[in-house]
């Protein structure tokens, strides 16, 4: 196996899909990057990048290898950080729901940077179900996610005990159903007139809650429009043809127009999840910052 620098080069090329772009980011010559890639592929015994003219794409083996390479680089950084007792700068990979990233994390991450400017943070967003998988597999170190109340209260909650994760309550979110204004003062779920829901793809906790409250699985007239962001969902609701569900804290950041009304649904707790036994100085600093931020 080649050294960690070759892994770093490969990850950079895989992200840039360009030798020239990766060389620029790494401060290396394109020929040096190409040589390291060739030696790495020879060491692995598989083609990791498919070259078509001047463009690149990951091969099937490359997609698998990229995940491992990122984890090995992260583990190396974590090891140096832990054995130095936190004296070596650390980095943390955090996953988050889109809503939490929009309304809660800016203040938390700013406080973390102020207290620990030597630490780095890598932030990605995904639906809660995917975040659970990413934490379990070690792809990320921790994640802010939500679990549907119906899941916790049902026999399915027993599955949480075998995930090998720890959970810490962070924020309580008030979910609202955003609905076109139809002139009813105290609009309720029984007054929902549209039959289209704008929501994130499957795996989103808030989508599942919306489906449960609106009884969408048993009402075939409903359609679901999968959307990439809350801005798009609110825009669709403004057309008068869609409803959507989102935390009230996010809704207030979007400067909503007057032709929409909010129907309260329920409260859902956002939790920080991490693997049992995972304890590094940088992650402890992050949790302590979170706790101070919650006071």
How does this structure look, described?
The protein has 295 residues and is α/β, with parallel strands linked by helices. The chain has twelve helices and ten strands. The strands form two sheets. It has an eight-stranded mixed beta sheet with strand order 4-3-5-10-6-9-7-8, with helices on both faces. A two-stranded antiparallel ribbon has the order 1-2. Helix 9 links the parallel strand 7 (196-199) and strand 8 (223-226). The chain is globular and about 70 Å long. The N and C termini lie far apart (48 Å). The model has no long low-confidence stretch (mean pLDDT 85). Keywords: DNA-binding, Transcription, Transcription regulation. It comes from Chromohalobacter japonicus. InterPro entries: LysR_HTH_N, LysR_subst-bd, WH-like_DNA-bd_sf, WH_DNA-bd_sf.
At CATH level 2, the architecture of the largest domain is 3-Layer(aba) Sandwich
Secondary structure class reads: alpha/beta
What is the chain-wise order of helices and strands?
Answer: HHHEEHEHHEHEHEEHEHEHEH
Total DSSP helices: 12
Domain HTH lysR-type: 1-59
Protein name: HTH lysR-type domain-containing protein
Organism: Chromohalobacter japonicus
Family: Belongs to the LysR transcriptional regulatory family.
């Amino acid at each position: 196996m080649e050294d960690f620098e070759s892994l770093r080069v490969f990850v950079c090329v895989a992200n840039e899909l360009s030798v020239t772009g990766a060389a620029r980011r790494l401060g290396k010559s394109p020929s040096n990057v190409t040589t390291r890639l060739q030696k790495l592929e020879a060491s692995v015994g598989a083609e990791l990048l498919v070259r078509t003219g001047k463009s690149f794409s990951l091969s099937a083996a490359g997609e698998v290898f990229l995940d491992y390479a990122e984890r090995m680089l992260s583990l190396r950084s974590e090891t140096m950080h832990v054995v130095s007792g936190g004296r070596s700068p650390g980095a943390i990979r955090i996953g988050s729901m889109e809503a939490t990233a929009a309304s809660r994390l800016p203040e938390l991450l700013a406080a973390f940077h102020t207290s620990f400017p030597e630490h780095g943070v890598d932030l990605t967003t995904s639906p809660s179900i995917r975040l659970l998988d990413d934490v379990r597999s070690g792809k990320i170190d921790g994640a802010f996610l939500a679990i549907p109340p119906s899941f916790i209260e049902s026999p399915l909650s027993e599955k949480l005990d075998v995930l090998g994760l720890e959970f810490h309550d962070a924020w309580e979110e008030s979910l609202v159903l955003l609905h076109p204004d139809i002139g009813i003062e105290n609009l309720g779920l029984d007054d929902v007139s549209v039959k289209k829901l704008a929501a994130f793809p499957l795996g989103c906790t808030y989508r599942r809650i919306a489906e449960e409250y609106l009884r969408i699985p048993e009402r075939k007239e409903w359609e679901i429009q999968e959307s990439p962001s809350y801005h798009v969902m609110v825009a669709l609701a403004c057309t008068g043809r869609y409803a959507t569900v989102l935390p009230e804290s996010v809704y207030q950041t979007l400067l909503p127009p007057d032709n929409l009304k909010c129907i309260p649904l329920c409260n859902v707790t956002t939790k920080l999840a991490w693997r049992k036994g995972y304890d590094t100085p940088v992650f402890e600093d992050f949790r302590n910052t979170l706790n101070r931020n919650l006071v």
